[in-house]
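Bug #77: duplicate submission created two jobs. Keeping one. Sequence:
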Amino acid sequence: MLLLRRMNKEGSPPHGIRFPSTHSSHAKLSCVLAPFVTILVLASNGCWLFLFFPHHLSPSIESPTDALREASPDLYAGACQLWRGEWVPDQGPSPYTKTCPYLGASENCLQNGRSDTGYLHWRWKPADCELSRFDAGRFLTLLRTKKLMLIGDSLARNQMQALVCTLAQVEDPIHAHDEFREQTWRFSSYDFTVTFIFSPFLVNYTVEASNDTIAGQTDLYKLHLDIPEWRWVRQLAAYDVAIISTGYWYHRRCLYYVSNSLIGGNSNSGLSSKIIKSHAALGITLRSALKYITTKFEGITMLRTVTVDHFENGEWFAGGSCNQTGPYLSGDGVVPPVPWMNQMINRIQTKEFDRARASMQDPMKLHLLNVTYSMHLRPDGHPGRYRIMTPDSPSNDCLHWCEPGPVDLWNQFVLHTLEHIL
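Kept job's structure:
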């Protein structure tokens, strides 16, 4: 019997969850087509599962960037592909310090004892343009009287915390709303609001505890892939900018529904048939969410792509660690390829982005924050063992990002984009 249960906080994956190993040279390409019966079931619900499987993918590629599909270029004058580039040494100051009171405790690596500060002294240099430092005053002036919402999982919260701390160098915000699933900050002098909505799947879902354990997981998530989550939908119209993201939660134990009918589940779901790859379900979600946004939302939307974790010698709760102290640099030899699963998710995200933008009357209202490759190059940017520990937490966090750290690049991308369209 399944018992309804409130979801636990998402700071770490449940015991046993395995995002496919990201840094093993022996990663194997699994079959990407669901069984024929699954395709028939999906087709009956108006879904085309095969559209979410790029052809000829390989976990072994010649160039790290070859793995990532090029999205349509931005439309403003002078636009460049920000995601192509490299990290270069930089001795400039961090946008904020460990004393920022708005930092996440688990991401405040310096406060938690990290002594190697070299990871702070790099900046991202795009291949074909210049990326300015983040100017908090410029950002607040640009967004005066406006409201920005970040929608997603704990990595979206990671970005929100970094943004609030950066803007706090100009003005201390008022914490207008504070709960686990929703946080709102107001910068009164600029009449500017930042809100974070915890929506790890972007679509409606329930979570239940079952009597069985699969891959170390008992919680079972039931996702309605065609229904954007009410938590952000009910507020979206009041905002001017929305940044959406999702990815890692799709590797939890999930059943998938379309039109309120079960269409299948992932390999951890407990189903003996109708197995649907998690990235295929993610593709359906993105199409649903972007269709809703591009037809109902009058503001600017940015889709942030999947990041990259850097666990070595194991996964969460299995001895995984991340002890690198510098980025991957092309001058040091061969840069490891972008992990296969991250390649797949990035391709699906850029594909659905392109599809949504092509359907819009005003495509300038939809933009891509393609951070996958830049984050792949930063194995040194995670909290690792320098996080607040609790008895049920992993000994190393190689998924989230130190604040300050590489995560601040995401907000540079946001400002760069807004400067050209507002």
